Amino acid sequence: MGVVDGSKTILPDDGAHIAQHQIWKKKVNLTKAMITQCMKSDLVIKVSHAKCAKESWNIFASEFSQASSGLIML
User: Which of 34, 39, 44, 47 could disulfide-link to 56, CB 3.0 to 4.6 Å?
Assistant: First the structure.
């Protein structure tokens, strides 16, 4: 969707871009919901403070990267 990889960024919330801004917000919220629905509850707590889908994904990805402490413990 572009909101996770950063290729789509938020447009200003002004009169000229209001429709695109609203669409972007909906995509971000949908993507963040999709990411959290795929997680166990203990991981959802870790991403609940994230402001956007990209931030949620980065937390999720770092949790399961090869260098993460969570994986080392397993």
Answer: 47
Answer yes or no: are the C-beta atoms of 53 and 4 closer than 8 Å.
yes
User: pTM of the entire structure?
Assistant: 0.62
Alpha carbons 69 and 63: distance in angstroms, whole number: 8
Cβ-Cβ contacts under 8 Å for 63 (sequence gap 6 or more): 43, 46, 70
Summarised one tens digit per residue, pLDDT across range 27-59 is: 888 888 888 887 788 888 888 888 888 888 888
Cβ pair 60, 35 in contact under 8 A = yes
User: CB–CB of 44/36 below 8 Å?
Assistant: yes
Burial code of 26-47, b = ≥16 C-beta within 10 A, e = fewer? Answer: ebbeebbeebbeebeeebeeeb
